[in-house]
Amino acid sequence: MLTHLNVLNFATVDSLELEPGAGLTVITGETGAGKSVIIDALGLALGERADSAVVRPDSDRAEVQATFDIRHNPAARAWLAERELDDGDDCMLRRTVRPDGRSRAWINGSPMPLQEVRALGEMLISVHSQHEHQALLRRDAHRDLLDSFASAGEAASAVRQHWRSWQAARRAHEAALSQSREQHEREELLRFQLEELDALALQDNELATLETEQKRLGSAEDLIRLCQQSLSLLFDHDEGTVNDQLGQALSWLGDASHEDGTLAGVLGSVESARLQVEAAADDLRHYLDRLDIDPERLAQVEERLSQVYTLARKHRVRPEELYQRHQQLREEAHTLAHYDDHLAGLEAAETAARTEYESAARLLSDKRRSKGPELASGVVSHLKALGMRGARLEVMLTPCDPGADGNEIVEFLFTANTGQPLRPLAKVASGGELSRVSLAIQVICARVLTVPCLVFDEVDVGVGGGVAEIVGRLLRELGSHAQVLCITHQPQVAALGHQHWHVHKKQNRKNTQTRIATLAHDDRTSELARMLGGVEMTDSTLAHAREMLEKAQA
């Protein structure tokens, strides 16, 4: 439930702090006093679109902070925990708007995108306005109301999910069937392509080996000449070699080191160099032994490379990608060879998805059929109490082709007068009748909602007298199931509130400020007397208001 609302620099509010309690809180005030500012501020905190016009003139920002007690709201607790936003039993939503229209939102102190704030807000507050009855002109609204009353939200979501899965499986199957007509031509092309690639039989990484070998074979004469010259210089030259010179240096340094021991390190380095020269000479001899001028092998390598490059161009891939292309075509050929099995698998998947959809749709239909009469009966009962004694309502389920919303069309049939036939609600109900039907449905459905706070914005417009009292009693009864905030112009409704807020404007030459006060018993009597009418507040009006309040609170 909503436990605290703090509003700063919002429209005509400079600073406002409210702490609504449990039960029914009524909100009254003169027309134009700013009663809707509470609804607008809550809407902003809950993620509605921001408008720079709400920022109070000469302010750097408007700010709304709403705090909720979520101890008995498992859906909200789970949502917050899943996103690591949980903070004990409280949940705080904060929103700011700048004069340039920029806004920011937080949940429990963490910045959040508006769609996340809206998703959480739907678990915290449900707003019912005087214009909401217009939704009853649409059959999809009838369906949603029935599903809400039947607690079939999860079942409806499951139907939509299974419908999407079924349609995806159907499309995949149909696409494969369409493609099967082209498979013969594709198989012929693959067979020709694979014959060439299989004949080539290129191995993984073979291309790099061939290119290295080609380079070596093509440079064999130069390699032999250079290596032989190097070997001769190092070890096998008649006129003196590096090895001979290092040997002479070792002899001289050996004699010198006897005279000065500090030369022992230099002597060791030269000796190591001579050993490395001998090892390099051995390696060169072995290399030369293996290195032959082989034009025939070079021709073979170059021919194979030419075949690789030609096929790579043919398949429009780089030469180093040809091996992978070969493997891909093999896999595709294998799939085509077993395409009947592939089609059978897709058909089975479509059948399974359809079966799951049909099972979910039957469950949803059962819930709708079982709760439709109960919804109609409850609405009619309230309509009779609201002065429409001849009213009848029926929830009609008409079978239709399977779809994302199930196997039936939901429509409310209505008549306001005894003896008149039932017809679609949108065609027969007047504005006033539609308003009362909407109120009755809202009250009926609100009882089964898991949202702990309900806000009614002047849903009692167009009623008065005893009917208005019935509206008030319905809302007060609803307050025993959830926290209810109701903006009203009806004294009969206002008298039935557990808590009463009065909205008024304070004006001076510079600005206008909206103020909200919590009324005690005497102040409530005065406010009810004002709402009852009359230019002057007489003793009889006050007595009537006092009697009304005492009766309502008894």
Describe the structure.
With 554 residues, this protein is of the alpha/beta class. Helices cover 55% and strands 18% of the residues. It has helices at residues 36-45, 74-82, 114-121, 139-149, 153-180, 183-200, 206-218, 220-236, 242-259, 264-290, 295-314, 322-337, 339-385, 425-428, 431-446, 465-478, 491-494, 521-532, 539-553; strands at residues 2-10, 13-18, 24-29, 62-69, 90-97, 103-107, 110-111, 125-129, 392-403, 406-415, 423-424, 453-457, 483-487, 499-507, 512-518. It has a six-stranded antiparallel sheet with strand order 2-1-4-5-6-7, with helices on one face. The protein has a six-stranded mixed sheet with strand order 8-12-13-3-14-15. Strands 9-10-11 form a three-stranded antiparallel sheet. The protein is elongated. The mean pLDDT is 86.
Tell me the layout of helices and strands.
Blueprint: E1 2-10, E2 13-18, E3 24-29, H1 36-45, E4 62-69, H2 74-82, E5 90-97, E6 103-107, E7 110-111, H3 114-121, E8 125-129, H4 139-149, H5 153-180, H6 183-200, H7 206-218, H8 220-236, H9 242-259, H10 264-290, H11 295-314, H12 322-337, H13 339-385, E9 392-403, E10 406-415, E11 423-424, H14 425-428, H15 431-446, E12 453-457, H16 465-478, E13 483-487, H17 491-494, E14 499-507, E15 512-518, H18 521-532, H19 539-553
Parallel strand pairs: 3-13, 3-14, 8-12, 12-13
Antiparallel strand pairs: 1-2, 1-4, 4-5, 5-6, 6-7, 9-10, 10-11, 14-15
